[in-house]
Design goal:
The complex is a heterodimer of chains A (about 725) and B (about 230). By secondary structure, chain A is of the alpha+beta class. Chain A is built from 23 helices and 12 strands. In chain A, the strands form 3 sheets. In chain A, strands 1, 2, 3, 4 and 5 form a 5-stranded antiparallel sheet that branches. In chain A, strands 7-9-10-12-11 form a 5-stranded mixed sheet. In chain A, strands 6-8 form a two-stranded antiparallel ribbon. Chain B has 2 domains: about 120 residues, Rossmann fold; about 100 residues, Arc Repressor Mutant, subunit A (Orthogonal Bundle), CATH 1.10.10.10. In chain B, the strands form 3 sheets. Chain B has a 5-stranded parallel sheet, with helices on both faces. Classes of the chains: A alpha+beta (about 725), B alpha/beta (about 230).
């Protein structure tokens, strides 16, 4: 199938076949049409079919003849219609004239009447020929001329009665002329003169003319006498009626068309069923060929896919126009051929026209199919290309204008826009200064547009304001919807969004790193604790061994002390990291600072004593209550007091003071430092920071840091001041009722 | 001769504990993860378990949970995790006591002794009538004898009064001022911290680790109380 599709020969054959089938279809349609029109498919026999064709042909010829008579032509001069003869009868049904050859006929028409107006008779016949007056006489509506009859009635002419009588008589008489025509035969001219004369004698009111046909009786003396001057006024009423019968002659030489038509009819009649078959078969074949050609269009030998051919280079609309013109010419040709008087010529002409037309249409269809398959129907159109080009041009222009505007700074841009608006306004006013209505209309439109634009800008600005407010309040999830904003507003909105994005990211990363650090410290601490446990235990075991060496014992003592310190350091480190990142749960409860201070003082009584320090505790009588976690508070006091025990100068007093100041519970620790403090209070609270001189004493240096973190965790404040040797810690908490 | 199962993934720690425990007359069984501990428990008669929490294969918490399905042997957790939540979780799931790493060997020994006494000697209702008992502390008001896990403890009269007050009202928090009034029968006038000092002395005598008391607890900023013992 694929090979067949891509074979050029197959395509050519199919095309030829299709064209041939089209021609065949045309011919069979003609045949079917002719036969159907004449009733061949509804039971009519060949003769009826032929008659059906001949009768109107004959009638139309006769009409021409009658018209010619009315205008004064002589019957002999008209007796040259190929294949047809005629006879004329007067009102009395007497044969007036018989053309040659009516003795051998195959079809006779009904008689048709006509009148011969007197004036033209006078002019053409009576004056010149003085012989024939023919009047129409027929009831056939096709030829009845009402006005004439009315005229006759007005003039009170008896003729109408005669005419109607004659007309009534006609149906009966139709048969008789046919019979009488046969005997009339060659003697027609002679006979016709006599009835004409009798006619004149009996019925005609005016005794002027003899209805002498052109021949022998023409030079009678009477007519010369008739056109005497006195008879002229009566001529207007002088109207005679005649009837005419046509005969289709048989076997007469030279009547080619009728004969060939008859032959055609008998041929068509004989093959009237074959035509239907031929039409159907050729239609099917043509359809198949068409489908095949459409499917095969674009396939070429040894090539994959659809290939554009030579035709496809022409733009589609141009091609359609190019093909349309010859097709129109073909149709014109067909129409022109239909005027030809030879049936054969007509048929050949039609065939040629249809063949050329079908070929062209086929070519166009194949090209269309190829384009459809390649999806280039629209693209290959010239109009489309032109439009696309225009569109590109407009887009480029627009982009250029946009580029220019974008490249400008905001201020000049705004100036330009405002200037433009003012300019348009100005020209509008100038142009329509005498027409207030138009001026006002323009003004209203302009203002409406401006108000809408202003509202839009205001709306955008409101959104941006809202966004700014939200962001400043720390709502970093807020996002400005810039989808409907334009220009600088959009830019601003996007910048705001970027700020929130950046900040969110920074905050996230900060949180992550904090968490990570805490986790790291916790995990490392756990990992360090395991080996440390072994160290402590084995040092302890070693100490229990009997060792004589004093130095070894001393070393062991150092190991024991340092491992204990390491343990404390690790614990503090973990606690500090957790407290500083807020990774500690707080159990909020009511906590009386008076009681806490007493408890702490009791716990540290002995330690302070051993450090040779005197604790001076002052507190109000009424309880001071705060919201805090008692255990964390103890840790804070524990750290501060142990700090004091470590670093206060021996023999000094330690002041521990609690008071309530303006809704704040204030706890103050004051002591005199043993060694000189050469750093600030804030630095002291930083992790791992201690006064230089105290480096060699025990402690991790994290105590103050942990204390401050825990205080902050409980929503309090811790301030540390160093004033000379005075070391002072102030804790502040909100008092609850 | 008690069998003590020591379970820790760190072999050095296991052997150190063995060195401490064996001179005290205990037989030490060793295990290096939860799985092994469970195997030993099913195989041998064990009187006490020292169990690490962070171990490969089966961690300490899961091991306790599995162990408690079939045995009520005392379990002391050894843990490097010092977070409260870990302790609470361990105790809730069935551990009897805990000690944090790095531990003091003497403290561990004391806790081991305490748990064994509770488990082997003081199990069930072997309590004298008229005696107040909270956990391992027993206070006989008629003989003025106080024992902790069966060991007699000598207290000063004030300490005895404080302990009696607290044990008579387990779970109740006494502020130092109240206690002073009740025990010294006097207005404190700024002497409340004396109570704290006595509490501290009392804890040193009754508790194994006074810094992490099991019985006499300070409710910081409010006062002191004795816990209503779980098993009492």
């Amino acid at each position: 199938m694929k090979n067949l599709k891509s074979s050029l020969a197959a395509k050519l054959i199919a095309s030829a076949l299709l064209v041939a089938m089209a021609v065949l279809m045309l011919y069979s349609v003609f045949g079917i049409g002719i036969m159907y029109e004449r009733g061949a498919y509804s039971g009519a026999d060949l003769e009826e079919v032929q008659e059906d064709y001949l009768y109107p042909w004959c009638v139309s010829n006769m009409y021409n003849l009658m018209e010619n008579y009315r205008h004064g032509s002589l019957p002999e001069n008209l007796d040259d219609i190929a294949g047809m003869g005629f006879a004329i009868y007067d009102e009395k049904d007497q044969l007036v004239y018989a053309s040659q050859g009516i003795d051998d006929y195959i079809l006779k028409t009904s008689p048709y009447g006509f009148n011969y107006p007197a004036e033209s008779v006078i002019i053409n016949n009576i004056r010149d020929r003085k012989d024939v007056l023919i009047t129409r006489l027929d009831e056939d509506p096709y030829f009845v001329e009402e006005p004439l009859e009315e005229e006759e009635l007005k003039e009170g002419d008896p003729l109408p009665e005669a005419a109607t009588a004659g007309a009534e008589a006609l149906p009966d008489e139709t048969a008789t002329p046919a019979e009488s025509a046969a005997p009339a035969e060659t003697a027609a001219p002679v006979e016709s003169t006599q009835p004409a004369e009798t006619n004149l004698d009996t019925g005609a009111p005016v005794p002027t003319t003899s209805l002498e046909p052109t021949e022998t009786p023409a030079p009678t003396p009477e007519p010369t006498a008739v056109p005497a001057e006195d008879s002229v006024p009566d001529i207007s009423t002088f109207v005679k009626r005649y009837k005419m019968v046509g005969y289709v002659l048989d076997g007469v030489e030279g009547n080619g068309q009728v004969n060939s038509m008859l032959r055609l009819f008998s041929f068509c009649y004989g093959h009237r069923t074959d035509f239907v078959w031929i039409f159907c078969v050729s239609a099917v074949i043509a359809l198949l060929c068409f489908v095949f050609l459409m499917a095969a269009a674009g396939h070429k030998k040894d090539r994959e896919g659809i290939q554009a051919g030579f035709t496809e280079r022409v733009p589609f609309d141009l091609l359609s126009a190019l093909f349309f013109i010859p097709v129109v010419i073909c149709v014109g040709m067909g129409v022109e051929v239909s005027y030809a008087n030879s049936v054969l010529l007509q048929m050949v002409g039609y065939g040629l026209a249809i063949a050329v037309g079908v070929s062209l249409c086929l070519w166009w269809c194949m090209s269309f199919a190829v384009r459809l398959k390649m999806h280039t129907v629209l693209k290959s159109c010239l109009c489309f290309r032109v439009l696309a080009w225009c569109w590109r041009l407009i887009k480029r222009l627009w982009a250029f204008v946009g580029e220019v505007l974008r490249g400008m700074r905001l201020l000049p841009k705004a100036t330009l826009v405002i200037g433009g608006i003012l300019l348009v306004e100005f020209f509008w006013l100038c142009a329509f200064q005498y027409d207030l209505g138009v001026t006002l209309f323009g003004w209203v439109v302009e203002r409406l547009v401006l108000v809408a634009l202003t509202l839009y800008v205001l709306l955008c600005m409101k959104r941006l304001l809202q966004a700014g407010k939200e962001i400043s309040e720390g709502n970093l999830d807020y996002h400005v919807d810039t989808a409907r904003m334009r220009g600088p507003l959009k830019e601003h909105g996007e910048q705001l969004n970027r700020i929130t994005d950046g900040m969110t990211k920074a905050v996230d990363e900060r949180m992550k790193s904090e968490r990570f650090r805490t986790e790291l410290i916790t995990n490392v601490s756990h990992d360090i604790k395991t080996p440390l446990t072994s160290i402590i235990n084995y040092v302890d075991l070693l100490e229990k061994e009997e060792i004589d060496n004093d130095r070894a014992r001393e070393y062991l003592e150092v190991l024991s002390r340092q491992s204990a310190r390491l343990k404390k350091l690790i614990d503090d480190l973990m606690e500090a990291s957790k407290a500083s990142t807020g990774n500690v749960a707080v159990n909020w409860e009511r906590c009386q600072l008076n009681v806490l201070l007493d408890q702490c003082a009791g716990e540290y009584a002995e330690k302070l004593k051993s450090a040779n320090l005197e604790l001076v505790l002052t507190k109000p009588e009424e309880p001071v209550t705060i919201q805090a976690d008692g255990r964390h508070m103890w840790r804070v006091f524990d750290n501060l007091l142990s700090n004091i025990c470590k670093y206060a100068m021996a023999g000094t007093r330690v002041y521990l003071n609690l008071e309530q100041v303006r809704g704040m519970a204030v706890v103050t620790f004051r002591n005199i430092s043993d060694s000189q403090l050469n750093i600030s209070g804030d630095e002291l609270m930083e992790r791992f920071v201690r006064g230089d001189r105290s480096r060699n004493t025990e402690g991790s240096g994290l105590g103050l840091s942990i204390a401050r973190s825990l205080v902050q965790l409980q929503k309090g404040q811790m301030n540390l001041t160093v004033d000379g040797d005075l070391f002072k810690v102030v804790l502040k908490f909100d008092v609850t009722e | 001769m008690y069998n003590i199962l020591v379970c820790d993934d760190e072999r050095d720690i296991v052997s150190a504990l063995k060195i401490y425990l064996e001179p005290e007359g205990y037989r030490v069984l060793e295990a290096y993860n939860g799985q092994e501990a469970l195997e030993v428990l099913s195989r041998e008669q064990v009187h006490l378990v020292l169990l690490d929490i962070m171990m490969p294969k089966l961690d300490g918490i899961s091991t306790i949970a599995r162990l408690r399905e079939r045995s009520n042997v005392p379990v002391i957790m050894l843990t490097a995790k010092s977070e409260d939540t870990d302790k609470v979780l361990g105790l809730n799931i069935g551990a009897d006591d805990y000690t944090t790493k790095p531990f003091n060997p003497l403290e561990v020994l004391a806790r081991v002794r305490s748990q064994l006494r509770r488990y082997m000697q003081l199990g069930g209702g072997t309590v004298k009538t008229g005696a107040l008992v909270i956990g391992g502390i027993s206070l006989d008001d008629s003989s003025k004898d106080v024992t902790v896990d069966g060991e007699p403890v000598s207290l000063t009269p004030t300490e005895y009064e404080i302990l009696k007050l607290l044990m008579n009202n387990p779970g109740k928090v006494f502020s130092p001022r109240e206690m002073y009034k009740l025990i010294w029968k006097d207005e404190p006038y700024g002497a409340e911290s004396t109570v704290a000092v006595h509490i501290r002395h009392l804890r040193e005598k009754v508790e194994i680790n006074p810094a992490e008391p099991r019985y006499i607890k300070a409710v910081w900023g409010q006062g002191y109380k004795i816990e209503r013992g779980k098993e009492a």
